[in-house]
Design brief:
The complex is a heterodimer of chains A (about 230) and B (about 280). With about 230 residues, chain A is mostly helical. Chain A contains eleven helices and no strands. Classes of the chains: A mainly alpha (about 230), B mainly alpha (about 280).
């Protein structure tokens, strides 16, 4: 699912955490009894998640494989999981940025705008990849972009404010090759510009297809789109 | 003690109001006090819910729970009056705001739901797969009725989960790691939505973990969720958040869920609980 991009040395240290967590299974004297206080909080969290029946990890997931992989952290996850919610140091941020840029692939024939009307519904839809007690059946509905969860777009629908407003996006910025590439990259893997951003990597993760990205971009850029009214 | 609790009818309770954070206070007054203490769009976002608080349908759920709590039930035909929620057998006043806590008899840090399961199984003799124990969600479930009744006895009191036993500290600190731990196809952690004040997901204003007054309301479960037309629990909220984050189903009996709850309760320390609350 995630690109196995080699990441700089700054990130390597994080890899040891999971291994340490797995080994921290108490003193042999106590059967089925683990001393939580002998672990670091990182080790204990990993233990509770993976070893102590914390989650239903065996459920099959939409992208193939099991729910366990949704809990296993990749390099970006580890680097950007900072206690207190701050950012990691500059070297780590640079490594995240470099890895993100390297993960981006472009459609054959270059970046194209699709159908803004389809993109409008995709931008609104919060459907897709939810699992657990009520898993999304991708056979019934297309996977949505969840854009309105965090962004305001066309103002006839209420968007969130976790991300910046994108109202009038194409109207303000035009449709040059550079701005289309920037928007595409931001959807595909926004860490290439904003390392450790909250925004999902909709392309790198496989969350959205190329067609869906093209339709959502049309919603942002097409002069006919209500985003640009 | 129980006779006092028996009087905890919604109407009767609304009378005895005190400014002390250690004494019982009607949930609508607790909410108003928080609203008056801080400028918060989260706290004031639903005028309708604020207005409805005195008629919160969860008050009826609590009433059903009162009946269940004091009635001899289960294969052993005993009530829950001998259950120790941390402040001694049968003491409910102020017990909920001091959960999760370490229990000597189980050697575990437990939240309200897991402690209730423990007592239903060990005291009342219910089998762990009995519907009374297994069914956790919905206003008609015995769990929600009991939890709402028990929690309500702490309304207006300050969140104060004990951090005396090393396991209580270890669980809270592991919960903190979980709160900030990103993973999955959408890269989310709890902080994605609860790391900044005044942010919205679509039309809903999100509670900020770092603003204790907001967080106190956020963790005030059980609450009647208007959109669900049911009273919901802390465990239900956690399950819903993981679902939205595209992460796996959390096990409500797990230490993972309790660790997260230890952390989130600690984050509201000192602020008064709104029990039961109403939410969108």
């Amino acid at each position: 699912m995630f690109k196995k991009t080699p990441v700089a040395a700054g990130l390597a240290a994080f890899a040891s955490i999971i291994i340490a967590g797995g080994c921290a299974v108490a003193d042999a004297g106590k059967t089925g009894n683990v001393d939580y206080t002998a672990m670091t909080s990182q080790e204990l969290a990993e233990y509770l998640i993976f070893e102590a029946n914390g989650f239903n990890v065996d459920q099959e997931v939409q992208e193939g494989g099991t729910a366990k992989q949704r809990l296993v952290q990749d390099e970006m996850h580890k680097a950007c999981s900072v206690i207190g919610g701050g950012k990691p140091d500059q070297a780590t941020l640079d490594a995240v940025r470099t890895a993100a840029a390297a993960s981006i692939t472009y459609p054959e024939g270059g970046i194209q705008l699709g159908d803004w009307q389809k993109g409008r519904e995709l931008a609104w839809s919060g459907f897709g990849y939810r699992i657990g007690h009520n898993p999304d059946d991708h056979g019934n509905r297309p996977v949505g972009g969840n854009c309105y969860n965090c962004h305001q777009l066309a103002t006839d629908r209420t968007g969130g404010t976790v991300g910046p407003s994108l109202t009038g996006y194409g109207k303000t910025r035009g449709t040059s090759e550079a701005i289309l590439k920037y928007a595409y990259d931001m959807i595909y893997n926004p860490h290439a510009y904003f390392p450790c951003t909250n925004m999902p990597r909709f392309g790198s993760s496989g969350f959205l297809t190329q067609d869906a990205i093209a339709d959502i971009m049309a919603y942002m850029f097409d002069p006919e789109s209500p985003v640009n009214e | 003690m129980f006779k006092k609790a028996l009087l905890a009818l919604p109407v009767a309770l609304a009378v005895g109001v005190s400014a002390n954070a250690d004494s019982w206070k009607a949930p609508e007054d607790v909410l108003q006090g928080l609203i008056d203490s801080i400028d918060s769009v989260y706290l004031t976002q639903s005028e309708m819910n604020i207005m409805m608080m005195p008629d919160n349908p969860a008050l009826w759920t609590a009433d059903d729970g009162r009946e269940l709590f004091h009635t001899p039930r289960g294969p052993n035909n005993v009530s829950l009056e001998a259950c120790d929620f941390g402040k001694g057998p049968g003491v409910l006043e102020g017990a909920y705001v001091e959960l999760p806590r370490y229990f000597e008899d189980t050697g575990r840090v437990m939240d309200l739901e897991n402690r209730l399961v423990h007592c239903m199984v060990t005291l009342q003799g219910f089998a762990p797969d009995d519907p009374a124990v297994r069914q956790r969600h919905g206003s008609n479930s015995e769990h929600m009725q009991l939890q709402t009744y028990i929690a309500m006895q702490s309304s207006g009191m300050a969140w104060n989960p004990p951090m005396e036993h090393p396991l209580e500290v270890a669980m809270r600190d592991a919960g903190e790691v979980m709160f900030y731990r990103r993973s999955g196809i959408a890269d989310f952690n709890c902080n994605t939505c609860h790391g900044e004040a005044g942010k919205q997901i679509r039309a809903s204003v999100l509670p900020h973990k770092g603003t204790a007054e907001e967080w106190s309301k956020a963790i005030s479960w059980p609450a009647f969720r208007v959109g669900h037309d049911h009273v919901r629990s802390s465990q239900h909220r956690i399950r819903g958040c993981y679902w939205q984050m595209r992460l796996p189903l959390i096990n409500p009996n797990s230490d993972a869920s309790i660790a997260l709850m230890s952390y989130w309760t600690d984050a509201a320390r000192g602020q008064p609980a709104i029990l039961p609350d109403m939410k969108r």
